[in-house]
Specification:
This protein is mostly helical. Bound molecules: fe (ii) ion (FE2).
Length: 180
Amino acid sequence: MAAVTDAQLLERIAQGHIVESPDEMTDEYRQTLVHILTVSADTELISAPSYYTAAKNSPSMNNLISALAIIQDELSHAHIGYRILQDLGVDTEALIYDRDPKKFKHPYAFDVPLRSWIELIVANAFYDRAGYVLLGDVYRNCSYGPWRRTFTFGTVRTGCAASPPRTGRSSSRPWTGCSR
Ligand SMILES: [Fe+2]
């Protein structure tokens, strides 16, 4: 596709066009998408240690396994966001492992320690609703197809289907893979 201006791209999107690759983007569109995806992926990632702190105080083994399942889900959600960022040309190895921790873009809520099982349940109930509202909007209105489709049947499975893993890329630092 020939290069487009921001105004032309906005007009196409207003007519229902779904953007499928960086070739179709303007610089501003790409930068904004990278910013939003980084906030989303970082939020998923940073939720894991927050939940884990409380999970260690689980009242039973059953509860602990439930909490660990939530954490595993969140890491999978983060993986999807970073995987899409990779397709946009972002060096996610550097983004995840070399970035100053203060530069991660997550809500303040995950800086508040969850110290008990009750705090974990209450916080998760609110965070889960907030995520449903925010990501529901992405599902309904996002103009970037690869991200939007990750919400079609559930985030993990379709996220992988939309963006097959790259080959030939190795890392000495293991990162989460799609578990389902
Ligand atoms: Fe999540």
